[in-house]
Amino acid sequence: MSDATSGGSGRTGLSRRTLLQGVAAGVGVAAGSGALTGFPTIWAQNIKDITLTHVGGSYAAIKEIGDQAKKDLGFSIEMQAVDPGTQLNRSLTQPKSIDINNLDSSEVVFLAGKGVLRPLKVSDYKLWDKTVSIFTTGKFPNGGPVPSEGISPMKGGFYTGPDGKKLASGPTEFLAMIPTLYNADTLGIRPDLVGGRDKIVSWKDLVSPAYKGKAALVDYAPVGIMDVAMALTAAGEMKYVDRGNMTRAEIDKTVKILIDLKKQGQFRAFWSNFDQSVNLMASGEVVIQSMWSPAVTAVRSRGIDCYFVPLNEGYRGWFVGLAPMAHLSGLRLDCAMEYLNWFNSGWQGAFIAKQGYYSPVLETTKKFLTPEEWDYWYEGKPAAVDIMDPYGHLMEKKGATRDGGSLWNRMGKVAVWNTVMDEDKYLTKKWNEFVSA
Asked: Between 20 and 30 A from 179 (CA), which of 58, 221, 284, 363?
């Protein structure tokens, strides 16, 4: 790493990190005037000219977040939203086209040891001691262990050493990425089209004949297979040793059941992006499906009832983080580190809270939400006021309660995590056979 990251000093007697912090603080008011007291004007100009490319899913690579970072830090962030396949392909074949990689846990597994990501020292991240314990120790606040089926935060959050060649199975001094958001996912339903919010209470309803032709799955094998595993387990059709790491025999049997269901007309669609999932649900073509929290929000913002069901068997958990790319150096690396440290400092956490996501640093996020917003999103209390989405649109009216309740009522019921299996290539092959059957 550069001397800025390691705390060394340059010829001026100040580290580049110190210079960067000083310039970033004043660049908004003084960059154009050359009045940056104590620092050469050239630093302000250099920072103004820096643009970091932040690549990730549409749920996280959001223009407004980049715009706010520029206001606070003085350099530019270009947000590029892509699908998981495109992101992985670029990461491996065009790594220098990305500066900040916005990864979910399954993507980290594919990229670890490939030399494209830069390992991070825990000591270089300022907010680690304020980060929720599921990421730092693998335990819930009550001391209970976080479930390990799938890629849990302990399996996808750390490297064994500074070379980043292998993911660790527990905490080390080297982060694979800085955690930025997480959630407990379940199924989205249309209560008005299924007979009410209490009509669907189990994952098994995803494969129930009652919703033949009205169900949909996410067309991404590492995630879709976990929704399917939850449904088939609940329906009593499958028993797995580890749903997060199936054997070939388990994959074969699972896919055979899925193909039979598809031929019977169970599935209306397989969606691959956010907008598709929203449109399927909003149109009523689908009444039960794999869904993301902000997609539920988007449907509701259209005045259509959509519900994220707290199912009896628990939730599918996932987490996302930011990793700088290995090619970064000098001032660009310094800016990247400033951006990573800014990301969980509050503004971004409050923004994504209004989409239904959780921040790993509760203390800073709470400062950027109103008490009423905090009570609704994090405490699970009835809304004391109308609840708006991040763009100022009405999402919930006064008196509404968040699906599933408080943060730990939801996250504490995670049963499995998004995954990458040892037999991932085989799973992908079989999943594609299912989708095209």
From this structure: 221
9, two tokens: 């000093």
CB atoms within 10 A of CB 231: 27
Tell me if 3-183+318-365 shares its fold with 185-314+413-436: yes
Q: Where are the alpha helices (DSSP H) in 360-420?
A: 362-367, 371-377, 407-411
Rounded distance, CA 248 to CA 302, Å?
Answer: 43
The 10s digit of each residue's pLDDT in 126-164 is: 999 999 999 999 999 999 999 999 999 999 999 999 999
Confidence at 17, pLDDT banded by 50, 70, 90: very low
CB-CB contact of 35 with 19 (8 Å): no
- Superfamily of chain region 3-183+318-365: Periplasmic binding protein-like II (3.40.190.10)
One-letter amino acid for residue 316 of the chain? R
Answer yes or no: are the C-beta atoms of 269 and 276 closer than 8 Å: yes
> How far is residue 157 CA from its own chain's centroid?
13
Domain ranges of the chain: 3-183+318-365, 185-314+413-436
Spatial distance between the Cα atoms of 325 and 119, rounded to a whole number of angstroms: 9
Please give the pLDDT value at position 160. Answer: 97
Note whether 232 and 207 are within 8 A (CB). yes
Task: Tell the CATH superfamily of the 185-314+413-436 domain.
Answer: Periplasmic binding protein-like II (3.40.190.10)
Residue with tokens 């956010």, as numbered in its chain: 274
Q: Quote the CA–CA distance of 393 and 406 in Å, as a whole number.
A: 22
Cα(35)–Cα(19) distance, integer angstroms: 15
Please report the beta strands in 178-274, taking only residues with DSSP state E, as ranges in sequence order. Answer: 178-185, 187-189, 215-218, 267-271
DSSP collapsed to 3 states, 107-167: HHHHHCCCCCECCEEHHHCCCHHHCCHHHHCCECCCCCECCCCCCCHHHHCEECCCCCCCE
Express each pLDDT in 336-347 by its tens digit: 999 999 999 999
User: What pTM does this model have?
Assistant: 0.84
Cα distance from N-terminal residue to C-terminal residue, the chain = 49
SS3 for 280? Answer: helix
Cβ atoms 105, 319 nearer than 8 A: yes
Helix (H) or strand (E) holding 287: none
Average of per-residue pLDDT across 76-88: 93
Between 46 and 118, the higher pLDDT residue: 118
